[in-house]
Design a protein that fits this description.
single chain; mainly alpha; two-stranded antiparallel ribbon; 11 helices; 4 strands; 5% strand
């Protein structure tokens, strides 16, 4: 009972922080820069526990946060493209420094260092591409609804999949990685999300940049598919590392990767989906 109360309180605070942060662009940037740093720090700590792995936790984390802020600055029009030069120099250092550190397996260090950027920093940074749009005249506008909708769809999908899976689940979706997920739950979650997407598209059409209900439903489906894949990827990673939770920073909910695993695939997938629609 006590664990349920703690889990509920943490969940309410977590959802509230995510929702409220999108009301102001500066709050969104600050919170997700912090999330990027905490998640990267957690990831590098996990992989450093493996034999012959010694990534530079501080530098990987600092680089990830800087990259997020650099993308935010570039997307808002506040900084030129040259803002990425320090980041590129840091990546070069992480690679070249292995020549002098005499680590037992530098390839592992390179791989995990780059994975911290590609798996965590890059996906989180793309949320700025959803939040900030540049008009043909060069004016940048902030759209809170698109990035917020990704998380709404993920939460609705989790709830719908859990309810439908508990009641109807018989056929396992990916038993080798996640025995609890079922096809029935995944399909049920997708239906819930399609309904939520249609409602958002109908009620908040102006805030959504004029997207049609059909486009909103397509976005919801993209988030469901890639959010589920993101969840499975993190489950595979934890099985490989031999751990149950990625951390304990969120009482009752595990670590940062446990909470943002789905979004690490869903956010960049949403960006690709929406940007593709603008060029076809």
């Amino acid at each position: 009972m006590k664990n349920l109360i703690v889990r509920t309180i943490t969940g309410v605070l977590f959802v509230s922080a995510i929702v409220v942060c999108f009301l102001k662009p500066t709050a969104m940037i600050f919170l997700f820069a912090l999330i990027t740093g905490l998640t990267t720090w957690e990831f590098t700590g996990l992989v450093n526990e493996r034999e012959d792995v010694n990534t530079n936790r501080f530098l990987c984390t600092a680089a990830g946060v800087y990259f997020f802020l650099a993308v935010a600055g570039y997307c808002t029009g506040m900084t030129p493209a040259t803002v990425f030069i320090p980041y590129m120099l840091t990546i070069i250092y992480l690679i070249v420094s292995e020549l002098f550190l005499q680590q037992p397996d530098p390839i592992h260090d390179w791989a995990y260092s780059m994975l911290s950027q590609m798996y965590i920093a890059l996906p989180f940074a793309t949320i700025n591409m959803l939040a900030f749009q540049t008009a043909p005249d060069g004016q940048v506008t902030y759209n809170y609804l698109l990035p917020l909708s990704v998380f709404i769809f993920l939460w609705v999908n989790d709830t719908g999949a859990y309810c439908c899976g508990s009641l109807l689940g018989k056929h396992k979706l990916f038993p080798r990685v996640s025995p609890s997920k079922s096809w029935e739950g995944s399909i049920g979650g997708a239906i819930f999300v399609l309904v939520a997407a249609a409602l958002i598209g109908g009620i908040f059409a102006p805030e959504g940049g004029g997207l049609s209900i059909l486009v909103w439903m397509g976005l919801g489906l993209v988030v469901v598919v890639f959010g589920t894949l993101g969840d499975l990827v993190e489950s595979l990673m934890k099985r490989t590392l031999g751990i149950k939770d990625s951390g304990n920073i969120l009482p009752g909910h595990g670590g940062m990767l446990d909470r943002f695993d789905s979004s690490l695939m869903a956010i960049p997938a949403a960006v690709v989906y929406l940007y593709t629609l603008t060029i076809v």
